[in-house]
Amino acid sequence: MSVFQAIFLGIVQGLTEFLPVSSSGHLAIFQNIFHIDTGSSVAFDVMLHVGTLFVVFLVYWKDICKLVVEAFRMLLDLFTNLKIFFSKNNTEQPKQYLRIIRTNYRKFVALVIVSTIPTGLIGYFGRKLIEDASSTLIVPGICLLITAVILYLSDRVDNCWKIPRDVSWGEGILIGIAQGFATLPGLSRSGTTISACTFCGFERKFAVKYSFILSIPAILGAAVLEIGDIVGESLTPSLIGSYVAGMIAAAVFGYISIRIVGQVVLNRKMRIFAYYCFGVGLFSIAGQFIFMK
Q: Are 189 and 179 in contact (CB under 8 A)?
């Protein structure tokens, strides 16, 4: 793979990772149509995701710092409660435990954990299916059509007001399941999770924030699972240079797209991307019979 091909795929990854049009679907389509051979490189995939992950940290660093601090405070309170539980109580008064989840940010932390569990299970057990689905244009095409329907319906949802304290644990699990299935090429991760949040009544600004911060453990977890495959790859200096160029391109264009999508969701203009996904989905399905002969 040349440096120009790596940059091209990085641009595609950056733009489509946050815009609700499916990065995996577009990468599969372009690689199949233009016959770009990445050598099934896990390292390249990971580096592209590292580029977009950097953007999430850059845009939401204040929220992420607060979430990390509250996560450690929750652990301290949990250990304190355990200490109280195992301590002897010689008085008749009941033991007073600390309330673990008592702020919006602590509820946010807990919801991210709850949503990540089903995502991780689906991603782990469905890895082979996802790899096979990326080798054809049919699956990305069908999934893009599904994405189009989801985006169109999400724009029509009213009564979106929930902030972390109002979200149920069941809703957190449902969003995690949605993110897990969005690993299929053509199902937009951001579009699926933002729409799932909207269907659950999340306030739209919080839905966007929750979707992108929820991607952090998913991407990190996937990278950890693939470390063994990366070690087995033979990487030359020129190939590493191409990968780095692709990662930088993904980060630059990812920053542009993450800024766009926030305004799109707030202004309820997701249907614009619904029309786009519908068109690309039909093109992808037709391309299976035109380009894949």
A: yes
